[in-house]
Specification:
The protein is an alpha+beta fold. The protein contains three helices and five strands; from the N terminus they run ααβββββα. It is globular and about 55 Å long.
């Protein structure tokens, strides 16, 4: 265990000396740490949002919630991963009232995304006007 920690520390120190790699590695490391914590408030981690248009929905991951400084409106920072490589994607800022919570776990969402939708839970809460999702 001590040897493994030493090697890992050496490897991180090496990456920390390379300017571009330092930025990318540091950002990815922070992003993965953020995904381990549940967002504040009543917002679920795995959600659906209208994207790229109001007639379509996409799976997104709420990374944090924000407050609009002008109106006080609650907003969600939603990361929309792309298929089949979830490390690339889009960041959308969406009013919380337009975020549709799902019952999906993070693992279920990532499996759905990486598989292109071929592997998915049996049901999804799609309609935001129908209220919160029912527990199946």
């Amino acid at each position: 265990n001590v040897i493994g920690r030493s090697l890992f520390g050496f490897f991180e120190g090496l990456l920390d000396r390379i300017p571009l790699v330092k930025t990318v590695y540091g950002s990815v490391k922070k992003f993965l740490q953020v995904l381990q914590d549940k967002p504040k408030g009543d917002v679920q981690r795995v959600v659906l949002i209208n994207f790229p248009s109001s007639e379509m929905k996409t799976v997104g991951l709420v990374t944090r919630t924000l407050v609009d400084s002008a109106s006080g409106r609650l907003l969600a920072a939603v990361y929309v991963p792309t298929t089949p490589n979830p490390t690339s994607g889009y960041l959308e800022i969406v009013p919380v009232e337009h975020v549709i919570s799902t019952n999906w776990t993070f693992d279920e969402a990532m499996t759905f995304i990486v598989s292109g939708g071929a592997i998915s839970p049996d049901a999804v809460h799609y309609d935001e006007s129908a209220g919160p999702p029912k527990v199946l």
